[in-house]
Amino acid sequence: MHSAPSRPGSFQPSGPLRGTLKVPGDKSISHRSLMLSALAVGESKITGLLEGEDVLATAAAMRAMGAHIERTGEGHWTVNGVGVGGLLQPAGALDMGNSGTSTRLLMGLVASHRLTATFIGDASLSKRPMGRVIDPLSQMGAEFTASPGGMLPLMVRGLVPAVPICYRLPVASAQVKSAVLLAGLNIAGITEVIEPVPTRDHSERMLRGFGADLTVDVDADGVRHIRLMGEAELQPQQIDVPGDPSSAAFFIVAALITPGSEVTVTHVGMNPTRTGIYKMLEAMGADLTYSNAREVGGEPVADITARHSVLRGIDVPADVAPSMIDEFPVFFVAASMAQGRTTTSGLDELRVKESDRLALMATGLKAIGARVEEREDGLVIDGTGGEPLEGGATVTSALDHRIAMSFAVAGQHTYHPVTVDDVSPIATSFPTFESILHILQVQH
Ligand code: S3P
């Protein structure tokens, strides 16, 4: 749980960034690997698990509902599952810390089990909308008592047998899709999710990997129909979690904006539902090369090398947003140092992430000298053409790890240091971020 005391961080250029690094395991895949292993009958082994606070919140919750989960070494975990339908009543409230993914996916799991669970979280999570999962899960028969606005703390009373539904996603959200599918695991019949705009498909890939009967059909309009047959029986697996492309993006952008840099990040997940950031950076002229492409545990993986590049502003098409939804904060940093104008739109979802990312990035970037216009659904940024930003200001991270890391990256190419008021939230997804940045700074 994110309980570390608030801690400011100061970031300033120290010359080129150089070196080869591995980022921690993918956060989305780490959550899912613990959840599905906990629902399989028998022992699963996970390597490369992200040991950030968010994923540890999922592990604690699955333990509280009966799974045996043990850490056997760095990133190595063993899980003995209880079987679909076998989750137990937790003794106390499930503390989700800062983690929206843990909360929404676990609400799905609980919805079709005979138990009642109370979800609590930190100040950031307690402001995030849960109505988007309460709606479909209520249709399946679960009952909810939520705080005003459909927020945490909230209580879920699961139903057995629950009702299979066909649900068309009203918002492009992998968390909502996954909550419905996970609920469907313990419901006899076909649970269907209709997905007009594709979002990350780790749940679909991993459910199949665990032996669930899941099909994906794309209709003539390009809409995905995901059908899961319950009640499912999941077989234990060995899972190697690839490096998180969202975490890698911070160092890739840092290398691109910092003159003289060359950084290689190895073993990065290259699932096409996650790589929008790399496509957009390339469209801006980024020097990125990919090597050693391979497949790990049903997910494509590669090594990425980034060399300093003077980027050119672009219009980011709104339909690219879901495949880079978590990377916009650091993308805005790249845009603020590009040549010309970058426009983004269709990003309303950024306002309901760990913070209002459009507002915080606009305010913070302006404070360090960037030219930014905040619109309702995106930012318009006029870049410096490769020159450093002014820096010399303190920016607010508001319990948002990605805001903190984005400004740490911005501080690699400014005239004066950038201070982040609180870097402690970085531990939710990337506990080794600051030490890796330091290593890259000194390897000249
Ligand atoms: C995630 C889905 C995305 C993303 C989040 C992780 C997931 O959220 O922003 O960091 O693991 O399913 P939404 O479903 O709200 O878009």
UniProtKB/TrEMBL annotation:
EC number(s) from the headed UniProt entry: 2.5.1.19
Annotated Gene Ontology cellular component terms: cytoplasm
InterPro entries associated with the record: Enolpyruvate_Tfrase_dom, Enolpyruvate_Tfrase_sf, EPSP_synthase, EPSP_synthase_CS, RNA3'P_cycl/enolpyr_Trfase_a/b
Pathway recorded for this protein: Metabolic intermediate biosynthesis; chorismate biosynthesis; chorismate from D-erythrose 4-phosphate and phosphoenolpyruvate: step 6/7
List of catalytic residues: 326 (proton acceptor)
Enolpyruvate transferase domain mapped to chain residues: 12-436
Pfam family of the protein (one): EPSP_synthase
GO BP terms: amino acid biosynthetic process; aromatic amino acid family biosynthetic process; chorismate biosynthetic process
Catalytic activity: 3-phosphoshikimate + phosphoenolpyruvate = 5-O-(1-carboxyvinyl)-3-phosphoshikimate + phosphate
Binding site residues for phosphoenolpyruvate: 27, 100, 128, 175, 357, 402
Keywords carried by this UniProt record: Amino-acid biosynthesis, Aromatic amino acid biosynthesis, Cytoplasm, Transferase
CDD domains recorded: EPSP_synthase
Binding site for 3-phosphoshikimate: 27-28, 32, 173, 175, 326, 353
Residue runs in coiled coils: none
Entry GO MF terms: 3-phosphoshikimate 1-carboxyvinyltransferase activity
HAMAP family referenced in this protein's UniProt entry, alphabetically: EPSP_synth
Similarity remark: Belongs to the EPSP synthase family.
Protein name: 3-phosphoshikimate 1-carboxyvinyltransferase
